[in-house]
C-alpha cells in the first residue's frame, strides 16, 4: 500500500465513523420515555444534526413499537395550558443546523404502544427525511432522564 492509499483509506474510515446512517444527517443522544407504566403512548427525543450542506426536513417517523407514530410539538394554548399538536409538515432542519427534539418541544409521538416500554428497553425508530431519506436509529428507553439535561450546543 502506498502512502497515498493509506491516507485515502484513513480518511474514508474517519468519514464513515462520523457520517452516521445517511448522508450526513446524524441522530445522537436519543431516548424514549413513557409517563407511566400503564401509558398507551410514549415519546422519543433526540438531537438531529444536518451536515449535508442542503436544507432538509424531517417529514415522518415509523416504528414497530407503536401503532401510530407522529411528529408532534408543544404549544401554549389560549388558556396557558401546553397542548400537543401534530405537525404534519414536519420539522425544518436547515443546512448546518441542529434540531433538538426535547421535552416540552418538538418530539416523536408513539401512539398506541405495541408493548409497554420498560427502562433499559430499546426501540427501533425510522426517521424519514425529505432529502436524506430514511435513517433508522435504536432508541434506548430511559425513564430516569430529567427534562433539562444539561448544556447542549446550540447553533444560534
Ligand atoms: Cu406528542
Automatic annotation (TrEMBL):
InterPro entries assigned to the protein according to its UniProt record, in alphabetical order: LpqE-like, Lxx211020-like, PCuAC_sf
Signal peptide (from-to): 1-22
Keyword field: Signal
Protein name (record): Copper-binding protein
Protein species of origin: Phaeobacter inhibens
Higher taxonomy: Bacteria, Pseudomonadati, Pseudomonadota, Alphaproteobacteria, Rhodobacterales
Amino acid at each position: 500500500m502506498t502512502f497515498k492509499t493509506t491516507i485515502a483509506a484513513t480518511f474514508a474510515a474517519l468519514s464513515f465513523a462520523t457520517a452516521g446512517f445517511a448522508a450526513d444527517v446524524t441522530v445522537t443522544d436519543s431516548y424514549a420515555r413513557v409517563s407511566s407504566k400503564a401509558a398507551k403512548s410514549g415519546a422519543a427525543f433526540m438531537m438531529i444534526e444536518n451536515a449535508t450542506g442542503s436544507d432538509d426536513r424531517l417529514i415522518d417517523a415509523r416504528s414497530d413499537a407503536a401503532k401510530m407514530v407522529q411528529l408532534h410539538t408543544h404549544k401554549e394554548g389560549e388558556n396557558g395550558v401546553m397542548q400537543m399538536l401534530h405537525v404534519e409538515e414536519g420539522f425544518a432542519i436547515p443546512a448546518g443546523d441542529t434540531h433538538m427534539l426535547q421535552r416540552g418541544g418538538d418530539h416523536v409521538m408513539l401512539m398506541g404502544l405495541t408493548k409497554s416500554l420498560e427502562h433499559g428497553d430499546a426501540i427501533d425508530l425510522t426517521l424519514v427525511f425529505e432529502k436524506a431519506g430514511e435513517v433508522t436509529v435504536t432508541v434506548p428507553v430511559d425513564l430516569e432522564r430529567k427534562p433539562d439535561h444539561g448544556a447542549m450546543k446550540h447553533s444560534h
